[in-house]
């Protein structure tokens, strides 16, 4: 077998993400990683050893892990994001401390992970780095708080925004996201996958629905606000086949390696909410027809990833403007690599590899680089959460 690092993967040992990573290791001729479950981490039983390199992956969809992180019994509930964030980032910091004690290293900087799981901080980091992002009154550590519907209305009026995305600050997979529109005469409507029961509790649904009126929409915002909200301008998106379109671009080791077009009849393009993979060749052709360059679109994603130099792989949500002429970055996702069956961009260094294969190849390059470009010991990057 090929010589390489002694790898540990923290995740759901029985889940798809860990399985895909282990498959990529075997395909590269490497031994499998030692798998550490998030349950062990959260219960304080995870131990690392000298010389191990630790890849922290998503907590996944294990009900008990979700309960320990969010403090709710029903995994379909939307609430609990703030508690999830506090417990998750504390657990990652604990792993970093354990790595330092044992003489192990983490692949990614835990301080950057904390930024990536706060949409307000991520937006502020990108804006400070000169990356084009939608306008936002909640951006950065000094952003305006949203304590409820009245705050949101005041922020929208003060910023001149009539169409916004309202996002739970620590959410993922479009959980709790509202695509909100206002018009004259007090008209309000929102598209969302949130379902509200008679008791006012919020649940995730796989169906995008519409709520109308300040009373209905305001009740949703009031229920979501305690977990923290990020608000940003709803940019008019490009279309493909009459459907709204954006792109998820995976950046590995600083280079854009994979891209998928996501299309939807609703403002939410997430594939699990009825979105569909679009035609990447057609998107590239549309960019060229508009006078743009596909390489520049990828460069925008690479600049976004460069704002997080201590994180080796991110998924960038690239928002093409109407007509495919301009681009902005909607989000940067720490665990944005779960794209089964997607292989690397033609002509690129990851051609023929899935997202996990590309990450394994990147790790091997890091360990074999002159001067030792392997991941650094936690706490040596100087990154802060601001």
Notable features of this structure?
386 residues, five-stranded antiparallel sheet, 32% helix, disordered C terminus
Task: Characterise the protein shown here.
This protein has eleven helices and 15 strands. It has helices at 16-27, 38-42, 63-70, 81-102, 110-116, 119-128, 149-159, 214-224, 280-289, 294-306, 355-368, and strands spanning 6-11, 34-37, 52-56, 105-106, 163-168, 178-183, 187-196, 202-212, 229-233, 239-240, 243-252, 255-264, 276-277, 313-320, 327-333. The strands form three sheets. Strands 10, 11, 12, 13, 14 and 15 form a six-stranded antiparallel sheet that branches. A hairpin with a 5-residue loop joins strand 7 and strand 8. Helix 3 (63-70) crosses helix 4 (81-102).
Summarize, please.
With 386 residues, the protein is an alpha+beta fold. It contains 11 helices and 15 strands. The protein has helices spanning 16-27, 38-42, 63-70, 81-102, 110-116, 119-128, 149-159, 214-224, 280-289, 294-306, 355-368, and strands spanning 6-11, 34-37, 52-56, 105-106, 163-168, 178-183, 187-196, 202-212, 229-233, 239-240, 243-252, 255-264, 276-277, 313-320, 327-333.
